[in-house]
Specification:
It contains 6 helices and 5 strands, in the order H-H-H-E-E-H-H-E-E-E-H. By secondary structure, it is an alpha+beta fold. A 5-stranded mixed β-sheet has the order 1-2-3-4-5.
Length: 161
Amino acid sequence: MKLIKNNKVTIFVIILFLVMVLGVIEIKNYLMPDDAKAVYGDRLDGIEEHPLSDSTLKGIEDKLKENDKVTDAKGWIKGKIIKYIITYSDNTSVADAKKVANGLVDMFENDELGYYDLEVTLKKDNKELNNFPIAGYKSPETKTIVYSKDREITKEEENEE
């Protein structure tokens, strides 16, 4: 008790300092968003109602790899976007590559594609071919995949190969 009576001012200053620190922390939490908690904000509301398992994505990868034009396929989910990278053999035409990728829409249920966006990247084993990669995108409001502008191999580049 004697210790408290002799150090009233010191104890008061320590308590005041702790209250001020807690106040500054609360004000900071109120004024500044916590990026670690909400990367997507409220855009992912309702995602629990539309679960999509890794086994579903793996099954679709396996279906894609069954096609003799596809050498590799990789799919994953990032937030509200289902992403696929499909690698084709070098002798695959742009039209055939798009046809295979368009089959992705049929591999998902309408409920899933009504919530998630679908993003596909089509590429070839030979990275030197300048008519690939091709990017495709399907939003929940659309029924088909829309692709980036087609690029044709130019004669100058064909001679370099």
